[in-house]
Each structure stands twice: as structure tokens, then as C-alpha cells.
Design brief:
The complex is a heterodimer of chains A (216) and B (542).
Chain A (H helix, E strand, L loop, with lengths): L18 H13 L4 H15 L4 E2 L5 H10 L22 E5 L7 H10 L5 E5 H6 L21 E3 L6 H16 L13 H9 L17
Parallel strand pairs in A: 1-2, 2-3, 3-4
Helix pairs in contact in A: 2-6, 3-6
Chain B lengths: L2 H8 L4 E3 L5 E3 L2 H13 L7 E9 L5 E8 L6 E8 L6 E3 L8 H12 L2 E3 L41 E7 L5 E7 L6 E5 L11 E7 L2 E8 L7 H5 L4 H8 L7 H16 L5 H29 L3 H22 L8 E2 L2 E2 L7 H24 L2 H7 L7 H7 L3 H6 L6 H4 L20 H23 L20 E9 L2 E9 L7 E5 L3 H5 L1 H5 L6 H9 L3 H5 L1
Parallel strand pairs in B: 2-5, 6-7
Antiparallel strand pairs in B: 1-2, 3-4, 4-5, 8-9, 10-11, 11-12, 13-14, 15-16, 16-17
Helix pairs in contact in B: 5-6, 6-7, 7-8, 7-14, 7-17, 8-9, 9-14, 14-17
Classes of the chains: A alpha/beta (216), B alpha+beta (542).
Chain lengths: 216, 542
């Protein structure tokens, strides 16, 4: 069965930028051939997933205020199903890295990301998260969050307007809609690997406590 | 009283340098006794340490500049002390005289590696413990090989190093216990929705009462001060908006004022009016956000939405004139970026009655609420003496009864021409801090109302050269930002870039008094206290 290009309500496909990337994903998906039942189920699940992406309330600096503005009355993020912001990474689907990531913060951010449940997404919001922004020359700033995490969507701006953030979130929705869910991203980690990861105590303060299990 | 004669009588070796604002140099050996005398002498009574700046004077040595003020007499003093030793520099600590020195000296240790003798807690304040080198020294090597991005988790130590002076004059290092082994320590942050950013507390609790609180800063330390040393003066302006993004106008105003002071430039009346109006609008914006976030933290989500609804009105006004919502880039050296938009006056006049009406709504929805009253009243009391000693200016200081408003103390802009009250409460608790800010919104509206019809005609921008050189000397200028005194200290050596540029953080004194305020309080009150102190983390960490 053929998976169609992702549709977002009230915005035409051509109005989005970066369509080639999604088309490449689609092509790959269709080339592998999809079972009709699985394909239909996938579309249903992805429809649900893309319209209930729960963001993690993570903000280090200025962009966080625009994130708050996005959640408030005028921009009303609830229209897209993102209104349930979670304070725990374990309940969140997407982390909007809004603000500068410094050298001291980077390991903390990585740990927060590790604590999120799969499938998880990262949006780099603002110049600092994209590339270091105005602080690129600083001795204590990570030059782009992609040095630490895999990023799905980049939203430039200093800070980006709430509209820009919404646009970025919609791009992520489109990406979610063309993903292979069953047998794809729901099985990213093997059972054995999952068990190993669970044994690792992510809450341990010291790295040396994260003892790797010896292979038998 | 002759301050010069008085200082010379205290320390005959003191040297006065007239360049810029003027500065006294005191030998390090006599500095501690001198500081005690400055604080205790009834005629001097320098009880407010406005700013403490670490310096690297190269050949001359490493040192510290102190900006002092007497809250009673109103006189001000700038002193410095320095040491030639670059290998193991040490200076006497003054944190027993001014509590504000406690965190500031840790900052200086972090930046310059100066050990403060008799300081109880000589840890790095911002950078990781395994950081190599001291970044603000002039000979610092910032290559990635020396300090790569370390992804290992940091170990939070329960003891701290400290340097004590022995009776025979030698200095020994020993470790002081911060948290005992049998203490129950919980960790809050750096990722916590109620810390307003990436601030981290380690709190020792007994039942639900706080025994001790340890603040960890630096998760958003961006090294702005070091970056400024390699930027020309007009370029440095861009970074101030990103310090305390809710005082973007005021911070930039302070830096422009300081540079203009160094250059001896007087801006036109029109610019002064515009800057003052913009500062006040920014203050309203910040205080509305304070209200929204405090309500959100205490569980009143609808109040959060009300606040943001009204805040958008101010952002619309800003956007028309400045083009930005949050980062405004409006003030420039010698003026403002662009003239006010033709709609500006009209929209501001529309906004004033609208906001007055809505403040009443805030009071109806939240202030009178029983839960809010119980969560705020009598919680987290900061005494007036502590507020002064910590240098906790702004709404926090005024809630404790300290008249610390820079707009009244050292009028700038057109604050000397407008009639406004300085809001003072005496309780010093969270509710007073909340009420100060709510009343200040009304007061700011009054100021804007008085000015908006009288903006004089004139140039909005003076002709300035692209490369600006400030005459040699040191300069300090301060404004009343949304949450306290925001100061800018520039040392110029006559180059096109500043030799040292220091921002007096408004938030650092506020977090440094957290331990004092929270002790004995309940752990749930930590949220209310943090919310009403209203700190902005990027401004603390810089």
C-alpha cells in the first residue's frame, strides 16, 4: 500500500519548506513495501501520535519565555494537541531545547534525554541551540545541541517567534506522520538492549555507579 | 565630611587615582581592617556593597574592585586591592563584613583564581570543578583541547575547601563539611519547573523543614563578560538584552549610559523620554510575567493565562517600534535605534486604562484568594539588615523596607522630572514582595502617563563614530532594572574594546540570600519564596 504525503490541517503541503526531506523518507517507506493492515494501523497510530505530542518543559533562557507565550492564550498551542506540557522527561514525547546549552548543562541535558521514553524527538529552538548563536565564541557554550543529541527540527531565531515555534512543531508532526511505527520505531531497541539500559541506573549521581553488565 | 581625609587617616598608604570615576587603592594587608572600619564607623557606615569585580591588571597583578554605598548617608566609594602573586594569589575575604561578598568572591575565585582567606566556602561558582584554568585572566587559553566538552556527570561534593589564616600568618587549606553523612539531602533542579530556569538547589531537610540550602549556579553561564572584552563597544550592546531578558531595555540602557558617561556625551531630551517610557513598559511587562509565573507555580493556571494576555499588549507596542518581542535591541550609544512608531503614543494611552482595570482583576482572582494568602503571608521573611548586607535590591529590598530604588537614589533619564512613589513594605515576607511588584505596575503606569504626552521633539540618535574609544579610566553606571539595581562597570585602557566589562547581576544577591530566608521554612514554601524573589537565571550566571 502507498503511504501518502503527510497532511496538516489548514496548511497546504507546498507552503511548508523542507519537503524533499520528507519525500525521501516517504520514498524509502514505500520502497520497502507496506502491508495494507499494518499500513492502515500505522497511519491511524501516527495520526494519534502526531496530534498529541507532549512537550517537556525544558528551557534554559530567553527562548523559554517565548515557549511560555506559545503555550498561553494568544498562540494557544492546544490547537495542535501540544498543550500538555510535562515536567517529567519520562512522560514527554518531545523536548524543545529552548536556550543556550553550556558545557555544564550538556551532561544534564543528555541525561534528561536518556530518561525520555521512546519514540522521542528533539527540536532545537533558537540560535543558541542550533549553533551556539550569539555565544558561539564563548568558552563555555556548546556550539549547537546536535553535538549532544540527535535533532529532528531546527527552529532558527533569537528568539524565534511563537509562530516559528509552532511551524517547527508542525514540521515534526509531518515527520511523525511518515514514520513506520509498527516494526519500525516501536522496535528501535531490542529486548536485550532494553533490559540492559533499564539496569543502568540513570539516577545514579556518579558515572562509576553505572556499572555495565558483563556479557556472558 | 571629607571622605579623602578620613580614608587617609584610616590607611595612610592609600592612593587615589582620578581617572574616570576615581578609585582608591588599598594595600591587601590592611584591607580587611579597612573594610571593617568602613562598615562600622558611624560617620562612614558603608553598609551596602553594590558591586564586587575581579580584575586582571596584567603586570600590576590580580585584584578586586569594590563599589560601596552608605544607605544612611548616601555617599559612595570605589576601592580596590590587589596582589602581585599570579601563581597562588590570595586576598582577605570581606564576607564577614558584607554578606554580598560571599557569592561574589566565589565568582572572582572562579574567574581569576584568587583565593579569599577566611572565606567559608571556596568552590567555583559557575564552572565545573574539573575546569582547567581561570577564564577571565588575560593569559587564559580557551582552546578546546584543554577544556573539551565533558559529558560525565558531575559529582556533588558534601564538603567544601576553605583557606584559613593562621596566627603566624601562614595560610592553610582545609575542607569544611557542608552536609553531614546522616543528613537527608534532596536535589532540586537544574531541571525543575519552579526554579525558573536552570538553577540547582541541594536542600537538607528535617521532616519537611529546611535545615540548609546550597545553591549551584552556572548551568547557563555563557561567559558574556569575557566575550565583551573582544568586542567593540557598539557590539557589546547586543549581549545585554540576553542577560535578563525581562529587563532587556533597562540593561541596555545601563550599558549605553555607562559608555556615554565615559565619552562625556549627553543625549537629547527626546531620547531620555523615550528611554524612560520604554524602561517602565519593560518593568510592567516583567512584573506581569512575575505574577503569571508565581501563580503558575502555586497552581493557579488561569491567572497565568490572564497575565500573558496582558503582556502581549506590551509586546505589540514594543514590536511596532523595535521590531522585536523579547530581544529588543533598541538603545544605542547616543540614542535609540529608531524613532518611535507613529502609533506608539496612541497605543500606550490605550494600554494605560486597560492595564489599570486588569490589575483589579488580578487582585480579585489571586491576591484575595485564601490559598494564595496562606502560601505567601509570613513565609520567607528577609530582614532589612540582611537585605542591605546581601545587596538584595529591587522589589525584594523594598518589601523589607529598604528604600533602594536607583530611580530615586541616583536619578537618570527623566525620573527627576516625574512624580512617583517608591513602593515600600516593611514585612519582608513573600506577600510583601508580591505586593511591591503589583503596586509598582500601577506606579509605572503613572510614570508613563505623565511622560507620554510630553515627549519633546528632537533627534533620536546622536551622530557617533563607528569605532568608539573611551578615555582611560573606570566607569560605573546603574539603572533600576525590573528586579533591582543593574550596574555596568567598565575599565577602559583607551582601546576600542573594553579592558574589563562587568555587569552587576540583579539576581545573584537574590539567590545568595535563599539560604538565609529558607532556613526553618517548609520545603513547599521554597517554591513561593523562589517565585517571589523573581530571579532570572541567565542574569545570575551571565
Amino acid at each position: 500500500m502507498e503511504i501518502k504525503e503527510p497532511k496538516i490541517k489548514s496548511m497546504r503541503y507546498n507552503d511548508f519548506k523542507d519537503n524533499e526531506y520528507l519525500e525521501a523518507m516517504l520514498k524509502e517507506l514505500n520502497a520497502n513495501g507496506t502491508n495494507v493492515v499494518v499500513g492502515c494501523l500505522d497511519e491511524l497510530i501516527n495520526w494519534g501520535r502526531s496530534n498529541s505530542l507532549w512537550p517537556f518543559t525544558f528551557a534554559t533562557s530567553c527562548c523559554g519565555i517565548e515557549f511560555m507565550a506559545m503555550c498561553a492564550a494568544r498562540y494557544d498551542v492546544a490547537r495542535f494537541g501540544f498543550e500538555i506540557t510535562r515536567n517529567s522527561p519520562r512522560q514527554a514525547d518531545v523536548i524543545l531545547v529552548s536556550g543556550t546549552i553550556t558545557n555544564k548543562m550538556a551532561p544534564v541535558l543528555k541525561r534528561l534525554y536518556d530518561q525520555m521514553a521512546d519514540p522521542k524527538y528533539v527540536i532545537a529552538v533558537g540560535g543558541c541551540a542550533v549553533s551556539g548563536g550569539p555565544f558561539k565564541k564563548s568558552y563555555h557554550v556548546v556550539k549547537g545541541v546536535d553535538k549532544v543529541l540527535p535533532v529532528d527540527v531546527y527552529v532558527p531565531g533569537c528568539p524565534p517567534r511563537p509562530e516559528a515555534m509552532l511551524y517547527g512543531m508542525m514540521q515534526l508532526q509531518r515527520k511523525v506522520k511518515v514514520e513506520k511505527f509498527l516494526g519500525g520505531i516501536n522496535h528501535q531497541v531490542s529486548k536485550k538492549e532494553y533490559a540492559r539500559l533499564m539496569e543502568r541506573d540513570l539516577n545514579a549521581e556518579r558515572d562509576e555507579l553505572n556499572v555495565e553488565q558483563e556479557k556472558d | 565630611m571629607d571622605l579623602k581625609a578620613k580614608i587617609l587617616s584610616l590607611v595612610p598608604e592609600a592612593v587615589y587615582d582620578e581617572k574616570g570615576d576615581g578609585m582608591w587603592t588599598i594595600p591587601a594587608g590592611k584591607f580587611h581592617d579597612f573594610a571593617v572600619a568602613l562598615h562600622h564607623d558611624q560617620a562612614l557606615k558603608f553598609d551596602f556593597l553594590r558591586s564586587l569585580t575581579g580584575m586582571d591588571w596584567g603586570e600590576e597583578g590580580l585584584g578586586v574592585v569594590y563599589h560601596l554605598e552608605s544607605t544612611e548617608h548616601g555617599h559612595r566609594l570605589v576601592v580596590r586591592t590587589l596582589t602581585k602573586d599570579r601563581e597562588a594569589p590570595s586576598l582577605p575575604s570581606v564576607c564577614d563584613v558584607w554578606k554580598a561578598a560571599e557569592f561574589n568572591e566565589r565568582e572572582v575565585y572562579d574567574y581569576f583564581g584568587i583565593c579569599f582567606v577566611n572565606h567559608p566556602d571556596m568552590r567555583r561558582l559557575y564552572l565545573r570543578d574539573d575546569w582547567v584554568g581561570y577564564p577571565l585572566r588575560k593569559d587564559y587559553d580557551d582552546s578546546e583541547e584543554i577544556n573539551p566538552l565533558r559529558m560525565s556527570n558531575e559529582v556533588a561534593k558534601d564538603d567544601v575547601e576553605s583557606f584559613d589564616l593562621q596566627p603566624d600568618g601562614s595560610i592553610i587549606e582545609h575542607r569544611k563539611v557542608l552536609f553531614d553523612n546522616d543528613e537527608y539531602v534532596i536535589n532540586i533542579g537544574p531541571q525543575h519547573p519552579a526554579t525558573h530556569g536552570v538553577l540547582r538547589f541541594r536542600v537538607s531537610i528535617e521532616g519537611e523543614f529546611i535545615k540548609k540550602l546550597d545553591v549551584h549556579c552556572g548551568y547557563i553561564h555563557r561567559g558574556i563578560e569575557k566575550m565583551c572584552e573582544s568586542l567593540t563597544y557598539p557590539q557589546t550592546l547586543a549581549l545585554t538584552d540576553r542577560l535578563d531578558y525581562l529587563s532587556a531595555m533597562q540593561s541596555r540602557h545601563a550599558l549605553c549610559m555607562c559608555i556615554e558617561k565615559g565619552l562625556g556625551v549627553e543625549v537629547s531630551d527626546r531620547v531620555k523620554y523615550i528611554r524612560t517610557i520604554m524602561d517602565e513598559l519593560q518593568r510592567i511587562d516583567s512584573h506581569i510575567l512575575f505574577f503569571s509565573c508565581l501563580c503558575q507555580d502555586l497552581g493557579a493556571t488561569s491567572a497565568f493565562l490572564y497575565g500573558f494576555r496582558d503582556r502581549e499588549k506590551i509586546l505589540d507596542i514594543f514590536e511596532e517600534t523595535c521590531g522585536g518581542r523579547l530581544i529588543l535591541n533598541y538603545n544605542t550609544i547616543g540614542g535609540v535605534q529608531a524613532d518611535i512608531h507613529p502609533n506608539f503614543v496612541h497605543r500606550v494611552k490605550e494600554f494605560i486604562p486597560y492595564m489599570r482595570r486588569n490589575i483589579q482583576e488580578y487582585h480579585d482572582v489571586f491576591t484575595g484568594n485564601v490559598i494564595a494568602q496562606h502560601r505567601l503571608k509570613g513565609v520567607g521573611v528577609l530582614s532589612r539588615e540582611d537585605a542591605i548586607s546581601f545587596g538584595a535590591t529591587g522589589g525584594t529590598g523594598r518589601a523589607s523596607g529598604w528604600a533602594c530604588d536607583v530611580r530615586k537614589r541616583i536619578p537618570y533619564g527623566v525620573y527627576d522630572k516625574v512624580d512617583f512613589k517608591e513602593i515600600l513594605y516593611t514585612e519582608g515576607d513573600s506577600f510583601a514582595r508580591y505586593m511591591v511588584r503589583m503596586d509598582e505596575i500601577m506606579e509605572s503606569l503613572n510614570i508613563v502617563e505623565q511622560l507620554i504626552d510630553n515627549i519633546p521633539a528632537g533627534d533620536y540618535q546622536l551622530k557617533m563614530k563607528p569605532v568608539i574609544r573611551i578615555p582611560e579610566g573606570t566607569y560605573y553606571a546603574a539603572v533600576e532594572a525590573s528586579r533591582g539595581e543593574f550596574g555596568v562597570f567598565i575599565e577602559s585602557h583607551g582601546d576600542k574594546t573594553p579592558y574589563r566589562l562587568k555587569f552587576r547581576s540583579t539576581g545573584l544577591p537574590l539567590v545568595s540570600c535563599m539560604d538565609t530566608i529558607c532556613r526553618g521554612g517548609k520545603i513547599a514554601d521554597l517554591i513561593a519564596i523562589g517565585g517571589t524573589l523573581d530571579y532570572i537565571i541567565p542574569d545570575i550566571d551571565r
